[in-house]
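Predicting structure from sequence has reshaped protein science. With that in mind, we have picked out one protein's residues alongside their backbone shape tokens:
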Amino acid sequence: QVQLVESGGGLVQAGGSLRLSCTASGGIFSIDAMGWYRQAPGKQRELVAVITRGGSTNYAQSVKGRFTISRDNAKNKVYTVYLQMNSLKPEDTTVYYCNAHVDPGLEVWGQGTLVTVSS
């Protein structure tokens, strides 16, 4: 059973940095894309950043130049994706969710980690 476990959220002042981590494990053969989404109360979940198995990345316009996504592939069948968040703004405050497309054709979500940026 595939599980995604997130860590790294917390409270930081505006202009500060946080690094989110998400580890995928549990009978995984391979993973295609991994990414981070966020969802504010009353709003739709939105893509923050995604990285493919080949290393191609895509970012939401609002985080370009501030956030960096990276991943480690298949160390003992454990996959990890990171989100380095710099120059954080109060509007980045929300719950961040890890997402993975596990071969073949399974989409898995993490439980979410709260990021709070104080002004």
In short: DSSP finds no helices and eleven strands in the chain. The longest strand covers residues 31-39. The chain has a mean pLDDT of 93. Residues 9 and 82 are 12 Å apart (CA to CA).
